[in-house]
Design brief:
Blueprint (H helix, E strand, L loop, with lengths): L20 H17 L4 H22 L6 H8 L7 H23 L11 H13 L7 E3 L5 E3 L11 E2 L2 E2 L6 H11 L10 H18 L6 H15 L10 H7 L1 H10 L16 H25 L2 H17 L7 H11 L2 E2 H8 L3 H13 L3 E6 L2 E6 L6 H4 L6 H10 L2
Antiparallel strand pairs: 1-2, 3-4, 5-7, 6-7
Helix pairs in contact: 1-7, 1-11, 2-4, 2-9, 3-4, 4-5, 4-8, 5-8, 6-7, 7-8, 7-11, 9-10, 9-11, 10-11, 12-13
Length: 411
């Protein structure tokens, strides 16, 4: 098969969107993202975003066939690794992904605005991720059967195929990456329409997979890249939702539409570039609909009435099982609503003595449900949400079988 050597092979860079349906999805994304980010106190947002990061890692790695239990990921974040080497490596992989996710906002900061589509930014994502991986994941087996080293942050120096798609000629990759960075730069002069920039997030997701710039790790890097693009457009809602969850839950459709968009233009009515405009439109529609679904899922999950009911049920169950006093519901409710609660106010809410309150808040702290901080002469409590209790407080974050395991942990 003849390899792509000219950057024009990547055209069209954006779908034509003659019907305007993609622009409509983009506008709905803006509205829903704004609604999500405005629902909660900033401290509560921060606590939930720290819960979403391991979820994002879980689903992104699941797309690659690596099913690491959410509880094992949480344990790894506390430096508690299993003795089994395979599972330990998977835990390390999840932690590496979470660490680079956490670093994304800082990587996007600088004296000058950072273009997340630039080769410099993409190579940093790949490099930081692979530097933390165990040695097991730093070599892959080629189609010929030989072992190939994955060099962090370096373009592939060989040809690759994924399914029926053969990536562009490795010697032309610098030109492809230059074109990619220029075309999808959200800060560029050619991308002044916010709706078009949002459509470009979807289109660039496919085109980066199509280029396949690295020997391995392309899938994870492209999803981290999409997160960075959403952040740049202020659509990430302070980390309150995950595109990877949606893509993983629609895994078969995701891979099918990615593959379809690899196809060349099939007639004169299918755009004017080398690749199919129709199938790129289909992929962009799927991607933006998936993002919208995930934002709306989180809006529903964080609905105040629903959340307060789940907190009450959680505390009632914890009290029945002797975990902590039922009065904890007042503390956990106010922490969710207000993002911060003083020791004095906690005593008033629970109607307990100083000694009883200390026992209660110490227990909640040990369980990872709040954080105590001394500020001046006062003690303040801040919300925290451990993964192991997400099945009760945030049902639907993980697959049902994983949430059943989490419920067992609470017994």
């Amino acid at each position: 098969m003849e390899l792509y050597r000219s950057v024009s092979a990547m055209d069209p860079l954006l779908p034509e969107d003659r019907s305007g349906s993609l622009e409509e999805l983009a506008l709905r994304l803006i509205e829903s993202s704004s609604l999500l980010s405005g629902k909660l106190h900033k401290n509560t947002q921060l606590a939930i975003s720290e819960l979403v990061r391991p979820m994002n890692s879980y689903y992104s790695n699941l797309i690659e066939g690596h099913d690491t239990h959410p509880i094992d990921i949480e344990r790894a974040l506390k430096n508690d690794f299993t003795d089994d080497k395979r599972n330990r490596d998977l835990q390390s992989e999840a932690v590496a992904h979470i660490n680079i996710q956490k670093e994304l906002p800082k990587l996007l900061e600088g004296r000058q605005p950072v273009n997340p589509a630039s080769w410099d930014f993409l190579r940093i994502l790949h490099m930081r991720f692979y530097e933390e991986l165990p040695e097991t994941f730093k070599t892959i087996q080629s189609e010929e059967g030989s072992m190939v080293e994955v060099v962090p942050g370096e373009l592939r120096n060989r040809e690759v195929g994924v399914g029926s798609h053969i990536g562009p000629f490795h010697g032309s990759l610098p030109q492809f990456m230059d074109k990619f960075g220029e075309a999808y730069n959200p800060l560029g002069n050619n991308n002044k329409s916010k709706a078009k920039r949002i459509i470009a997030i979807a289109a660039s997701h496919h085109r980066l997979v199509w280029i396949h710039p690295f020997v391995d790790g392309n899938g994870r890097v492209v999803r981290l890249f999409s997160d960075a693009m959403f952040m740049t457009e202020r659509l990430h809602s302070n980390g309150l939702w995950s595109i990877s969850r949606g893509l993983a839950r629609a895994g078969k459709k995701y891979t099918e539409l990615l593959s379809a968009a690899d196809q060349v233009r099939y007639d004169d009515y299918d755009g004017r570039g080398n690749l199919s405009n129709r199938f790129l439109e289909d992929f962009c529609s799927f991607f933006l609909t998936t993002a919208l679904d995930q934002i709306e899922f989180m809006i529903s999950s964080l609905d105040i009435d629903n959340m307060l009911s789940r907190i009450d049920s959680f505390c009632r169950l914890a009290s029945d099982r002797g975990k902590f006093r039922y009065e904890a519901r007042y503390i956990l409710t106010d922490l969710f609503l207000k993002g911060k609660l003083s020791k004095t106010e906690s005593m008033r809410l629970t109607g307990t003595s100083d000694k009883t309150l200390k026992l209660l808040t110490d227990t909640l702290g040990d369980l990872g449900l709040l954080e105590s901080r001394k500020e001046g002469k006062s003690v303040w409590y801040y919300p925290k949400y451990p993964t192991r209790y997400s099945a009760m407080l945030f049902p639907g974050f993980y697959p049902l079988e994983k949430e059943i395991d989490m419920d067992r942990e609470f017994n």
